[in-house]
Amino acid sequence: MQRQRDTGPHTQANVSVSGNAAHWTSAEGCTCFRTHGAAGETVWYLVQNPHHVGMSNAHAGCAMTVIGG
Q: Distance between CA atoms of 36 and 42, rounded to whole angstroms?
């Protein structure tokens, strides 16, 4: 089964920026890192094991990518 791709609106309230990296944790407890897509849009990719930012592992309910934000 392929995981979903989330394109909904997201707040920046729970984004922590550290150096050149930024991590965002969704309301579902899924931690993602920020990058930019080919068209210049913001893309968030799921972090499978985000212990380095103090979060628990990803789970089946987490989207692999989130567009926007």
A: 5
DSSP state of 53: G
Starting at the earlier edge strand, list the strands of the sheet with 65-67. 5-6, 65-67, 42-46, 31-36, 21-25, 15-18
Tell whether pTM > 0.70: no
Domain ranges of the chain: 5-67
Question: Which segment of 21-25, 34-38, 52-56 scores lowest on mean pLDDT?
Answer: 21-25
Return the SS3 of 24: strand
Task: State how far the Cα of 51 lies from the Cα of 54, in Å rounded to an integer.
Answer: 5
**9 vs 33, more confident:** 33
- The Cβ of residue 3 has, within 10 Å, a number of other Cβ atoms equal to 13
